[in-house]
Amino acid sequence: MAPEHAEGQRIPARAKNGPDWGRRLFFATLIAILIFFWWMLIHSGGVAGKHGAEQQTTSAGGGQVGGEPSALSLPAPKPKRADYPGIGVSSRTVVWIVAQMHLFFGALVLAVPIFVLVIEVIGFKTDDDRYDDMAHEFMKVSLTAYAITALFGGTLALSLFLLYPDFMNYMMRVFGSQVLVYAVLFFLESMLLYIYYYGWDALRYGNRKWVHMTLGLLLNAVGTTLLVVANSWSTFMMAPSGIDPATGAVTGNIWEIMKGPLWNPLNLHRFLANIAFGGAVVGAYAAFKFLSAKTPAEKAHYDWMGYTSNFTAILAFLPLPFAGYWMMAEVYAYSQQMGILAMGGILAWLFVIQAVLICTILFAGNYYLWTGMARTEGGERYRWLVKYIALVLVLGFLVWVTPHNVIYSGSEVARLGGGSHPVLGPLGIMPAKNIAVFLMLIFTFLSFQLYRRADKLITVAWRDWGNALMVAIYIVACANVIFAGVYYGYFTNTVYKVGSSVLQVSSTAVVIVSGVVIDTLMFKGAKTLPVFWGKVPDRSQYALFALPIAFTWLMALMGYIRSSMRTHWHVYAVMKDNSPDNFIPPLQTVGNMVTAVTLLFLIFVLFIFWIANLSGTRQVPPETGGKFVAAGNAA
Amino acid sequence: MNELIKPLGFSVALILIFASVTYVLPQMKGEAPDEKEVDVGALTMDSFVAMGEKLYQGKGTCTLCHNKLGRAPDLLTYDVAKTSLERIADSRYQGKAKDAEGYLRESMLQPGAYVVKGFGKKGSNDTESPMPAVDQAPIQLSEVEIGAVIAYLQKKDGNPVTVALPAAAPAGQGKEDAAGAKPALAQNAEEAIAKFGCAACHSILKTEAAIGPSLKDVGKRLKIDQIRNSIVDPKAEIAKGYPPIMPDFPAMTLSELEMIVQFLTKQTGTQL
Q1: pLDDT higher than 70, residue B178
Q2: For B185-265, CATH number?
């Protein structure tokens, strides 16, 4: 839904004269890319249930070249503390900061082109240049971030080789020439990115536009391949495969090494999280521009841009819990010990903070949608529901952050009559939190659905039946979520508690999918009410700042948890970490580190926004007084 | 400028709020397991049991699952040694252990030999255990450490510790600690008996004493495990007619204990 503001003039349809080879090129490329990733998914085993910490992949013959022992057959190094070079500050702190910054910017630059391409295609299909301009402006933000990503990536590599030489020696031995493939892909990504951005206006119409979108496809394919290649390094460290588990000697080929049990779960999780993160960051850019806009047209443009970013972020965020469940299910399948360490051991407390962060995201996303209903008169119809949705969100938040127990004194335990509160104690365990989380997701989708319906008057004959069906689906889904959580959570053994999430996940997914399908059918022939872009209160934009802040903090936190599950192992159960930093730090230290990297990221993001703004600014000739004036919103 | 300052202030405030949550949560540090070599020559049964408890709480990561949250049986809430014998007699038992010590060792090395109902891997109908073998990575308990955990599990409920103390380390290993401040190790049973003053209360060797029961025929009266346990835990069972005054011997090493035990098992009274 593009803004219908004063300056928004629809341009004529794209020129489609001449041979239609551009379309064929685009779809052939798309099919080839889909086949490539499908092949990768199939051959990587999808869900790797047969893996396990005790049954790592081995295949005879690896590591031997012509019967002679090769470097691959060497065991993993066993460095002693003295083997770790020191530079006067904690090596882990250095790597932690640099790696996290690289991951932040990497996530941004890999995600933005994904939804930029989608927006570009929408603009092309609707013959609306405003989509095209917005997509181009998003890319401007991504372009500066790309250079910073590369800088942090290079610094990270140097830091690792300097501070953890034995570990990097082993990783290089295991992954071998795959790292060169990564380097080649990086070159390719750079070339495609620059051509995609700088060729935007040169490849704007007809077959040339198809070529441009094909470049976008290739850019995203290469970017996603880069992502999954880098993911294989992380997942190898967590759940190694393709090696002898007793010695760490390489026994499998590079494919067997890459396709560990956690590879695909992490691929999916990062892919979705990156899009959500990227959407949130460019949403903040739009909010910043909205607040500083001087004209109604600018406000309308950036309001729409912010809405699109928020829509992208929340859309990618909603399935993230499912990807997270898959990830943790695979962690448990690989090593129950590792799973319990994360969810029930020393790292479990961090999930209280996760609850605060995700609830912040949900509150911000919902609040933005509610305030966004002010853009159309039709929003008034649903305003009465907002307080009930808010109530569910608040109750969900309270349940989610209720700890099972805390550290009590003896007298407190005596007064409580046990380690857990007699009333609130049951709310502290996972089943209660699952109920809270899934209800919050369902009601967030309700906000989203109401927002989408706000500017429409549904006219199909079966409108009442459709609405009744939708209401019934919500009721049944909520009942399922509550029943599954209570029954499996409180009346069965711990082992079966996980089973409750299957019903809860599927119930939530049914709401989302059926909601989209039913609405799509009901919107046919619907009367569209006018939407007044820019007519939202300034305070609504703060939701767009809260989103990236919470996402950034959350990404850093969850990345830390994932990494810490390895405890004192560089490569889990294969190569020990004997460095001075091989302990799990107290939560305050974790909080401080995550805060530091988030603040650092914020500073760099401000720099990117400033650069993006600067590129649209032109100095006027000195005779006009030498003042800077904005050159407009053109990308 | 205002449109930059306000969002920036809002963002920084939000970041600090998130950070503050970490300050109100319990502060725990997860240390990596201590990889120091165990000086088995300097071990006493008390320190061996204490080592087992430390391993149970720490490196062994037992409490990660064996706790009150129901992930695995909470071993601290029932008599593990007694239950072990019941498990061995259970028709579902697949192992080869004959006694509690064997069962406990087997349950750590081959957890699937007996899976407690309701605690098997999901979908396995309690035929597969989710517990990892503790001698494998990532836990990697040594044989000595496994023995220590068994000793702890036996001792915690007042059962006799049947696990044999590990033999002294090979020459050149683990001698440094023992050589320093600790008294010289006895070289044979007679020296050990003299070192710990057994003859002050018991009739033994060429001395006669009536404060404690005679040990000259103890090999006929007691089995080897009972003899060992009576030294390791003197108050667990008091001989009829004698006061419960026998002290613990925290400084007794494993090798000294074994020398005394082996010596006493041969004291059947017929030598005199």
Answers
A1: no
A2: 1.10.760.10
Please check whether residue A543 touches B, CB under 8 A.
no
Is any Cβ of chain B less than 8 angstroms from the Cβ of A340? yes
Task: Give contacts of A 106-125 with B, CB under 8 A.
Answer: none
Distance of CA B10 to the CA centre of its chain: 55
| A379 belongs to a structural domain | no
- For residue A98, give its domain range: 91-349+535-560+583-607
Chain B CB contacts of A336 under 8 Å are 65, 130-132
Of the CATH numbers 1.10.760, 1.20.1260, 3.30.300, 3.40.109, which one belongs to the domain with range B40-155?
1.10.760
CA dist list (Å): A212 to A110, A416, A465: 18, 66, 44
Q: Give the position of tokens 């049914």.
A: A510
All structural domains of chain B with their residue ranges: 40-155, 185-265
Task: Tell me the DSSP string of A116-158.
Answer: HHHHHHHHHHHT-HHHHHHHHHHHHHHHHHHHHHHHHHHHHHH
The ipTM is 0.82
pLDDT tens readout for residues A95-130:
999 999 999 999 999 999 998 999 999 999 888 888
Measured between alpha carbons, how far is A198 from A194 in angstroms, rounded to an integer?
6
Binary contact (B18, A573; C-beta < 8 A): no
pLDDT-derived band at B169 (thresholds 50, 70, 90) equals very low
Cβ-defined contact of A353 to B118 (cutoff 8 Å): no
Structure-block tokens of residue A568: 């004192």
Count structural domains, chain A: 1
Low-confidence ranges of chain A (pLDDT < 50): 1, 4-13, 47-51, 54-67, 628-635
pLDDT tens digit sequence for A530-583: 989 998 999 999 999 999 999 999 999 999 999 999 989 999 999 999 999 999
